[in-house]
């Protein structure tokens, strides 16, 4: 396989499908329609980690805390909290006069039930329990006060309580109806209540006027499950959906030119890197790893493949992430210096570099082709190895079967570097098949014991600098969150994490 370092020569032909404008579909007054890619299959908060779940269910459920579009943490079902007994106990004061959609009262019993269930047998069936294992148990102090008794410190817990598994659920309803019924007929305390769910088709919610935050201005929120990007864009242009969440970079110009829709492109949580095999092959040498980083022109890739909807990164996190160090700069693109470093490391011309990647990711396929072209310019022999995502993620990476480099894409929904760094770099973790670095382990463990935000931020920034110095990966870019939004949608502040909340949104 032959590669060229010219991005044009690499054949970057990003499809900009021309989707014809059709007559605008009628929209019910006061109804917003959102397209997401995947039907989660269950609306139970403990059953999922999927962003499409949160895009819809963030309107059904509330957590003890909440995170606004500005990513700042704020009170929700808890009005305040304090750390007691040397941080081993967290006391939450709960909001009073709150109802679930079925009329059931929200109180301390509901909070205890939610976390007993999450940390118990039912929680074991889903992917969320491990995010909350720092909690030993929840104790009721009075009807509107609870204590979280902690097994260990967890400085990210307050953020976790704002999403996914930590959403508060109704005890009586679940006990009477059962988990299977709850999966398909969710009840929460959020601003919109469940009306109808048709698997693979849509989820319909209507306003809950008694919401503690005030009645929503919309009448209904309809989520449609549309996995094809071309279809989402066509439906947006035709006026049959109001928000499209699947806008590939190649289709962004199509949305920008649409007379009845706007393109939103903002910094998001998703970062992409080529992780490097530190155990065998030429990438065992840290100087070779640094040479590979310097050989890849990330700015050119962002311009050609992402059409500018992204930015370079120096560590595996976005600049919205707690722990990001703005003073840390990526190694510069310098092909001549990279060649010199390879020669000094004694790397022979034609040495192999294999890139393993998710075969269904058309964007990264083009990125991998570009990286291979740059590696060839170094005098190396690159090969591309696509895999089915489950094979790559559950076999090739965790069992240490990768080549010299492999595709790593990560969302980091907590916007906290711990959620990424611990899972990527601590020994024994699924995403770290090759390294056991005592210094890095110690830093990662240390920051998990620190509640002082400034002190903890310093340790996380030290982790990022150490990872960069060891060149454990080629940090490529932070993808923008790209949405298509109908011009009839008003007062919509797009959240970077796609966890929509439509309380104040209106439609014309």
From TrEMBL:
Organism, as annotated: Microvirga arsenatis
InterPro entries tied to this protein: Peptide/Ni-bd (IPR030678), SBP_5 (IPR039424), SBP_5_dom (IPR000914)
Lipoprotein recorded as keyword: no
Signal peptide span: 1-28
Family to which the UniProt record says this protein belongs: Belongs to the bacterial solute-binding protein 5 family.
UniProt keyword terms in alphabetical order: Signal
Domain Solute-binding protein family, first and last residues per copy: 72-430
Protein name: ABC transporter substrate-binding protein
Annotated compartments: Periplasm
PANTHER family: D,D-DIPEPTIDE-BINDING PERIPLASMIC PROTEIN DDPA-RELATED (PTHR30290:SF38), PERIPLASMIC BINDING COMPONENT OF ABC TRANSPORTER (PTHR30290)
């Amino acid at each position: 396989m032959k590669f060229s370092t010219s991005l044009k020569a690499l054949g970057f032909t990003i499809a900009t499908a021309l989707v014809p404008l059709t007559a605008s579909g009628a929209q019910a007054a006061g109804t917003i329609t959102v397209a997401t890619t995947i039907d989660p299959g269950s609306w139970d908060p403990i059953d999922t980690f999927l962003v499409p779940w949160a895009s819809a269910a963030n309107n059904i459920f509330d957590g003890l805390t909440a995170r606004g579009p500005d990513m700042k943490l704020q009170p929700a079902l808890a009005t305040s909290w304090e750390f007691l007994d040397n941080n081993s106990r967290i006391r939450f004061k709960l909001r009073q006069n709150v109802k679930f959609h079925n009329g059931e009262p929200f109180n301390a019993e509901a909070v205890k039930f939610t976390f007993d269930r999450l940390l118990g047998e039912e929680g074991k069936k889903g992917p969320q329990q491990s995010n909350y294992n720092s909690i030993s148990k929840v104790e009721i102090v009075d009807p509107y006060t609870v204590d979280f008794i902690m097994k260990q410190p967890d400085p990210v817990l307050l953020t976790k309580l704002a999403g996914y598994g930590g959403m508060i659920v109704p005890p009586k309803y679940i006990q009477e109806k059962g988990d299977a019924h709850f999966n398909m007929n969710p009840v929460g305390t959020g601003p919109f209540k469940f009306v109808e769910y048709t698997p693979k088709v849509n989820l319909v919610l209507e306003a809950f006027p008694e919401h503690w935050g005030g009645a929503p201005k919309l009448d209904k929120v309809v989520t449609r499950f549309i996995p094809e990007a071309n279809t989402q864009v066509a439906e947006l242009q035709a006026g049959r959906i109001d928000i499209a969440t699947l806008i590939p970079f190649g289709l962004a110009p199509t949305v920008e030119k649409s007379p009845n829709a706007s393109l939103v492109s903002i910094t998001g949580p998703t970062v992409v890197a080529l992780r490097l095999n530190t155990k065998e092959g030429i990438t065992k040498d840290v100087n070779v790893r640094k040479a590979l980083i310097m050989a890849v022109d990330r700015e050119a890739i962002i311009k050609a493949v992402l059409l500018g909807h992204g930015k370079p990164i120096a560590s595996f996190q976005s600049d919205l992430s707690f722990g990001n160090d703005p003073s840390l700069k990526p190694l510069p693109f310098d092909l001549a210096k990279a060649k010199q470093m390879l020669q000094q490391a004694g790397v022979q011309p034609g040495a192999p570099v294999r890139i393993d990647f998710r075969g269904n990711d058309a964007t990264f396929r083009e990125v991998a082709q570009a990286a291979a072209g740059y590696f060839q310019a170094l005098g190396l022999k690159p090969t591309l190895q696509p895999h089915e995502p489950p094979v790559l993620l559950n076999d090739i990476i965790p069992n240490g079967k990768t080549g010299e480099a492999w595709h790593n894409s990560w969302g980091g929904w907590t916007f906290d570097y711990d959620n990424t760094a611990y899972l990527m770099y601590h020994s024994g973790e699924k995403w770290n098949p090759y390294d056991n670095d005592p210094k890095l382990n110690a830093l990662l463990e240390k920051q998990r014991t620190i509640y002082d935000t400034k002190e903890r931020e310093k340790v996380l920034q030290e982790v990022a600098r150490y990872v960069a110095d060891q060149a454990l990966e080629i940090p490529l870019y932070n993808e923008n969150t790209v949405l298509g939004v109908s011009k009839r949608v008003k007062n919509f502040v797009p959240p970077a994490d796609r966890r929509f909340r439509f309380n104040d949104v209106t439609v014309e």
